[in-house]
Amino acid sequence: MKSNNNKELISIIVPVYNVEKYLNRCVDSIVNQTYKNIEIILVDDGSKDKSGEICDFYAKNDERIQVIHKKNGGLSDARNHGIKKAKGDYISFVDSDDWIEEDIYEKCMNSNKKYNADIINFAIQINHSDGKYYNQSIKEEKILYDNEGLIYLNTFKNLDISACNKIFRTSLFNDIEFPFGKLCEDCYIMFKLFHKAKSVLVTPYIGYHYFKRKGSITISENINLDYLYAYEEQMNYFRENIPELLYIAESSYAFANVTTFNNAIMKKKIQKALIKDTRKNAGKYSKSVAKNGYLSRGKKIQFFIFNRFNCLYKIIIKIKRKYGNKY
What we know:
The chain is of the alpha/beta class and 327 residues long. The chain has two domains: 203 residues, Spore Coat Polysaccharide Biosynthesis Protein SpsA, Chain A; 99 residues. Strand 6 and strand 7 form a beta hairpin.
């Protein structure tokens, strides 16, 4: 769908739940986009505060905004409702406690004129409530064709798993939905979207501000095993649909276990069984990690130390988290 200015329509979906303190910042950053051909779908997911009223206020003052009020079903359910209502050529997602740069869609769509990519990826700035921040580094614009994007997604090449720093061709979602009731919902579908995409444009623009605050669902003392289950599901998907790249998915699952191990040893309540299981699961795929030529030397060294010298690895991770972790 294109307007008179011949620009593609972008549907921006914002799940909203009890975020009255942050919602204005989020919606203002979307409303004020320099790329004007957008529709904004605010999905009030059963908010108990004034978030729903704030959504309605914005809708009364901007004809590009529509509001969906629904019973609480979680982030995935809210996004899926928004996707069903979307009329755009492209879809983008913004979480309601985050915000975006006001020129990010214009920059991305201008870059995409020469590529016509199915997915456009831009960089993230991680903002902490104490004012500290960290910029994801993407050095240059790059176009990836066929399964290149899928490989980059799984080999630590600054192409992350988040849905929020991407613009997707709407047709990619024709038979794909976010999984209901899951955390790490992006991990469950991103590999499917990238497999369907004929091309992925990676841009260096910092456009998405991810706000880390106390009480957000991503900050918890509990270990979220959905993350591991999602990468296991991806591995099974590769086995069935892309067997020639199975070693990519196996090495990615191995590193998902490493990440879970890293989180587990830093928790106040140490889960010894989980630590043991993640070591065992990662070790099963050490040959795939060794075979994976897309992994950097540094990642391979990290895995080698994890797999062979685990006590040393624990010390390194704890020191890194205490003194050098920017996340």
